[in-house]
Model the fold of this input.
Amino acid sequence: MNSQPILYLDELDMKMNVQQHARVDSSYEPLKIPVPGYDPGYYVERDIYQAIVFCTQEEEGFYLNKYANKLQFVRWGDHAVDVLPMGGSKAAGIARLIQKLGKKPEDAVAFGDHLNDLEMLQYVGHGVAMGNALPVVKKIASHVTTDVDRDGILHGLRHLGLIRAANVS
Done:
């Protein structure tokens, strides 16, 4: 499995272990952001906080069997799986932040559009799905806003009363 496309993320940047791959391209295309650069040894002597393995569900079984007690796997696309430290997730990060701020989950807001956002959207009091979100994400959200590229976060924040529309003269 060492030929599998993998994206490594540290606190500063992210790099791929391959220069180009169809699975990476198809996973990144809907995100409308450039595919990260190439550095096959990026993970060496760095603290890697997350990785993304670009594999099929069948191929994911290899990783689940080998690392089930050490890593957490969250699929977010046909060929993309987030690989996180055990106990690490968007929801866990939000939980730590709101605890530090002395707040409660029901006071928190989160926006999401994919499978890797489900836990986070269910954890907070106001889980907002983007208009371009998967149907399963929209189903569990407390509100659905417009698409991400149509100011979805802005519209969601307005809907929740967290910001007001600016007066245009």
User: Anything to note?
Assistant: The helical segments are 22-28, 57-67, 90-101, 118-123, 135-140, 152-159. The first helix runs from residue 22 to 28. The chain has a mean pLDDT of 91. The chain is about 30% helix and 20% strand.
